[in-house]
Amino acid sequence: MAKPETFFDMDFTKYLADLKVPGLDLDAILESQKKNVEALTHANKLAFEGMQAVMQRQAELLRQSMEEYAKSAQSFGDMKDPQDAMARHTEMAKQAFERMISNMREMSELMAKSNNEVFELLNKRFSETLEEMKKMMEKAEAAPKARKTAAS
Question: Where is the Phasin domain (predicted)?
């Protein structure tokens, strides 16, 4: 076997095939690893899309807040009575606080939804990998028994 230039140039399928380990189903192992990489790729894509959605929503909320602030600042200029202005300012502060709490809850729910999707995908693949490994082990254990029965 020719020496690869770098680690990434190495053809692992040839290397493992040269090992010739009895009961080792190289194709099944490679297929399982391929599925693992695909699941991780999909999980990363879901996580990225989830973060994009959160960031877009945060930008929308910031834009809305700035518009509301500009409107309220204009309305304060028209007020003549200081008590009325103070009462209105207090009410606006209360509304802004409630809106902030609501927005934080919404952001938290968006992030939780994204995280749950990623976790469910990875958990499903992990369960599949365990099942694949179990089947490979059963097949590897059955191979010597089958050879003994055939030799008899």
Answer: 29-126
